[in-house]
Write a structure and sequence with these properties.
Elements lengths: L1 H29 L4 E2 L10 E5 L12 H15 L5 E5 L9 H11 L7 E4 L5 H10 L7 E5 H13 L5 E5 L8 H21 L4 H15 L1
Helix pairs in contact: 1-6, 4-5, 4-7, 5-6
Length: 218
């Protein structure tokens, strides 16, 4: 019995690490050629999709991911590569409004308010990507986030036939972003399970398909 416990204690962490690595590489390789860091190489599109995050950490310090992401979104708009920006984030709690925080940050960076569209139902990356097409009828957005996040969003987009590309915001130093990168590894496993195993459907997509089904039967 002790021997079995020892074997499991060794094998389970190795298996978990293997699954995490496989999921990470699957999404990275599946989005090669779709992410851009240099504005000069980025194709022009009508709309950018800025993925939400909190502007401050739990300890009250500024969230560098947020600041860098807003810098990238402002650069993208000022360059003329996009005309509008969808700011998609969480607003499930009235006291917490990611799209509003993003709007305020972008206004401070000189982006015209008329260019900003607030999507307050982007609770997950999954929802933000699908809502860009179903709710806002955007088939080819430029997704704005850090590269690791962009790749997951683009993998979801391509699965659903959305011709998205990504513009990478500056990443944080490795010693500052370890917790976020760890969460990302597990998020990639969840994404692959949602798409290929569980068949999870974002709310907007499910509602759209239901409406189409009703139209076909009426």
């Amino acid at each position: 019995m002790v021997r079995l416990i020892l074997i499991l204690a060794v094998l389970l962490p190795l298996a978990t690490a293997g699954v995490l690595l496989a999921a990470y590489l699957t999404i990275s390789r599946g989005t090669d050629g779709l992410v851009f860091t240099e504005l000069e190489r980025l194709p022009e599109r009508e709309v950018g999709l800025v993925l939400g995050t909190t502007p401050r950490l739990r300890n009250g310090n500024p969230n560098i991911y947020f600041d860098y992401r807003m810098d990238a979104a402002a650069r993208l708009w000022r360059s003329g590569k996009v005309q509008r920006l969808i700011l998609s984030g969480d607003n499930t709690d009235r006291r917490y409004d990611e799209p509003k925080y993003m709007r305020n940050a972008l206004l401070e960076r000189g982006v015209d308010e008329e260019a900003l569209i607030l999507d307050r139902a982007g609770v997950r990356t999954f929802d933000s990507v699908i809502r860009a097409r179903v709710t806002y009828e955007v088939e080819d957005p430029i997704v704005v986030s850090q590269e690791f996040h962009n790749r997951r969003a683009l993998y979801i987009a391509r699965y659903y036939g959305i011709d998205a590309i990504g513009f990478n915001a500056r990443d944080v130093a490795p010693d500052q972003g370890l917790r976020t990168k760890t969460r990302e590894a597990f998020a990639r496993v969840k994404t692959l399970l949602d798409l290929w195993v569980l068949g999870t459907r974002p709310a907007d997509l499910a509602e759209s398909e239901a409406r189409e089904g009703e139209a076909r039967t009426s």
